[in-house]
């Protein structure tokens, strides 16, 4: 099902690409309201036939300079000294599907740019926010599923990565399964688009994410285009086990949004959180912090 090795009956189940395109269109338009997870699974495989793993194993060096950014809003009723408050929520609080999580399942949503992280949470004037900055400490290759198309906008830091990872997948499929290669390309594009454009309650993207992160495929993370900034930046959904073991908290910026006009945010830095002896310790912001935060939010914007 999710492996690169296909069963004979899966291969034989693929129709001609033109018919397969129509099947994916039916799946794209399907009304999943009131349908549970197991039934969604049956419907997905009825039309799509397989779920390709789309795994890209990258050496740590590729991520060595990558910082991950997450913004949470109005969480003063949480314990702000706990690292998990700023990484991923307790599954108890996941009351509905997200783009990359089923109801009752948790992941850490983050972005590759602080502006993208801010846009994703749609802050309002007067909101209090917490921008956390994370770095990866894993020495071995990351088990990553890439849901990026091969034609990302110029300026996106993943342009080369997306192009090369797609080419590798296409080459493998064309070599091993030439008769269904064109159908695989259709499915690959269908899944990537779902993670970009599907609206809440995210029936298909949450189902696929659960397969990729929690069930048989067990990836470390998923990368996909950011909807809020038209694909110019990317978002990641990180499995909580990977967060706990390999992500290191660099700092937290506590801010208050003062103004939002013409896609420009103006805010005041309240305080800075730094990780120390297993807890987050807060200090007053200074002039250096103000300058650092300004540069942070104006980097690659």
Question: In words, what does this structure look like?
Answer:
By secondary structure, the chain is α+β, with helices and mostly antiparallel strands. It folds into two domains: 8-57 and 148-221, no CATH class; 65-139 and 243-297, no CATH class. The protein is built from nine helices and ten strands. A hairpin with a 2-residue loop joins β8 and β9. α2 runs parallel beside α6 (181-197). The protein is elongated and about 65 Å long. The two termini are 40 Å apart.
How are the secondary structure elements laid out?
Blueprint: H1 8-13, H2 17-29, H3 37-48, E1 55-58, E2 67-73, E3 108-111, H4 114-120, E4 128-136, E5 142-146, H5 159-176, H6 181-197, H7 203-213, E6 221-225, E7 234-238, H8 240-246, E8 247-261, E9 264-276, E10 279-284, H9 287-297
């Amino acid at each position: 099902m999710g492996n690169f090795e296909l069963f004979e009956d899966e291969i034989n189940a693929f129709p001609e690409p033109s018919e397969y395109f129509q099947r994916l269109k039916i799946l794209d338009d399907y009304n999943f309201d009131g349908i549970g997870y197991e039934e969604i699974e049956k419907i997905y495989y009825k039309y799509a036939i397989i779920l390709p793993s789309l795994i890209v194993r990258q050496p740590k060096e590729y991520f060595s300079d990558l910082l991950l950014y997450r913004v949470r809003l109005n969480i003063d009723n949480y314990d702000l000294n706990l690292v998990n408050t700023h990484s991923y929520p307790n599954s108890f609080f996941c009351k509905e599907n997200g783009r990359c999580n089923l109801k009752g399942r948790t992941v850490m949503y983050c972005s590759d740019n602080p502006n993208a992280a801010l846009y994703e949470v749609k802050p309002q004037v007067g909101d209090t926010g917490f921008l956390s900055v994370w770095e990866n400490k894993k020495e071995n290759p990351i088990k990553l599923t890439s849901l990026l198309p091969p034609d990302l906008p110029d300026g996106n830091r993943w342009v080369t990565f997306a192009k090369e990872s797609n080419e590798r997948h296409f080459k493998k499929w064309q070599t091993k399964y030439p008769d269904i290669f064109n159908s695989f390309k259709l499915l690959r594009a269908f899944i990537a688009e779902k993670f970009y454009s599907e609206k809440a309650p995210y029936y298909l993207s949450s189902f696929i994410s659960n397969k990729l992160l929690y069930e048989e495929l067990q990836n470390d993370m998923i990368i996909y285009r950011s909807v809020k900034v038209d694909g110019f930046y990317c978002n990641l959904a990180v499995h909580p086990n990977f967060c706990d073991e390999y992500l290191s908290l660099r700092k937290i910026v506590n801010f208050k949004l003062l103004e939002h006009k013409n896609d420009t945010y103006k805010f005041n830095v309240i305080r800075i959180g730094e990780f120390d002896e297993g807890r987050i310790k807060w200090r007053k912001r200074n002039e250096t912090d103000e300058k650092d935060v300004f540069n942070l939010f104006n980097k690659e914007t």
